[in-house]
Write a structure and sequence with these properties.
This protein is an alpha/beta fold and 301 residues long. Helix content is 32%, strand content 9%. The protein contains nine helices and six strands. α5 packs across α7. InterPro entries: 4Fe4S_Fe-S-bd, 4Fe4S_Fe_S_CS, Helical_ferredxn.
Length: 301
């Protein structure tokens, strides 16, 4: 990916030198070779810090929320999932399109930094330490869906197996088996809110889980409150999830959070579709659960 790194740096220098943008969001190498972190570039001299390699796994669109109340014009490099996150923020009226200069990079699939760290440590490495990250193995939209200029070549989907195979496996369980599955899953949650903080669709200025008057969900780490937290959050992003998988990747206890999201992605498409979130930018567009039509399905009533 050295050629792409050179192109990324050239684009950044050109945009900053011509004052097309005030800053650029991209990736730079971290302290270890398997870490490529967020880079905020404000000068042409800093542009040589930028890279694009197999560890640029972070979804940069989330970091736009740190600038939503400003006036700076921002250049941002986006993969397929990052670009869907940008669309999500624009549709949610969290960011203005005219404040963005979007540079798309078709994504060849990223490696898992944690798996690479295990392998580098000398301890027992994970089997997929050299393969694609788990979230990339479920990717069906690796190419940017919105951009002002595009680098690199179009990529084929990285999906391994059937897209909703894990969802169908849960759907095939009895109600008692499903209860046991999710009870075990949610009992492990430590309520650190990493999944909320990393999610581009969790962009409310005041989160329901931070409210104390009234307190909608208890603060205790117990099964009931954990269950409520995850179900409410999953319903909040139903029809809005961009499938970047950052929630599951950020979870310190390894909860399969994308299982919930994919279930709702599947259901929203079947009930209100064909529909997939944030695949194109349309003026005034809203996801299915944000609007009402008289012919909406109501057989659950």
């Amino acid at each position: 990916m050295k050629e792409l790194t050179s192109q990324v740096r050239e684009v950044a220098k050109r945009l900053l030198a011509n004052q097309k943008v005030d800053l650029i969001l991209g990736w730079e190498k971290g302290a270890q070779p398997f870490r490529s972190n967020l880079a905020v570039i404000r000068s042409t001299e800093e542009a040589d810090r930028l890279v694009f390699d197999e560890f640029c796994i972070n979804n940069l669109s989330t970091y736009l929320l740190d600038y939503r109340d400003g006036h700076e014009k921002i250049g941002i490099f986006v993969k397929g999932c990052d670009s869907r996150g940008v669309v999500r923020l624009i549709e949610d009226n969290q960011f203005a399109r005219e404040r963005l200069y979007i540079i798309g990079i078709p994504c060849p699939g990223m490696k898992d930094p944690v798996a690479a760290a295990w392998a580098d440590s000398g301890l027992a490495g994970k089997p997929d330490s050299e393969g694609l990250a788990a979230k990339c193995r479920q990717c069906v939209h690796p190419n940017p869906v919105v951009f002002d200029e595009l680098l690199g070549s179009e990529q084929a989907p990285h999906l391994e197996g059937e897209r909703f195979a894990d969802v169908k496996r849960i759907e095939a369980m009895t109600s008692a088996e499903r209860y046991e599955f999710f009870a075990e899953m949610f009992s492990r949650c430590i309520r650190c809110y990493a999944c909320r903080q990393i999610c581009v669709a969790c962009n409310c200025r005041k989160c329901i889980f931070d409210e104390t008057r009234p307190q909608w969900v208890g603060r205790e780490v117990n099964l009931a409150d954990n269950w409520m937290y995850h179900v409410v959050r999953a319903m909040h992003i139903a029809g809005r999830c961009v499938e970047c998988g950052e929630c599951e990747r950020a979870c310190p206890v390894g909860l399969p959070l994308m299982l919930l999201n994919r279930k709702l992605i599947k259901d929203v498409n079947e009930l209100f579709g064909p529909y997939e979130a944030s695949l194109k930018l349309e003026e005034g567009a809203k996801p299915p659960l944000s609007v009402y039509r008289p012919d909406d399905p109501d057989n659950f009533l």
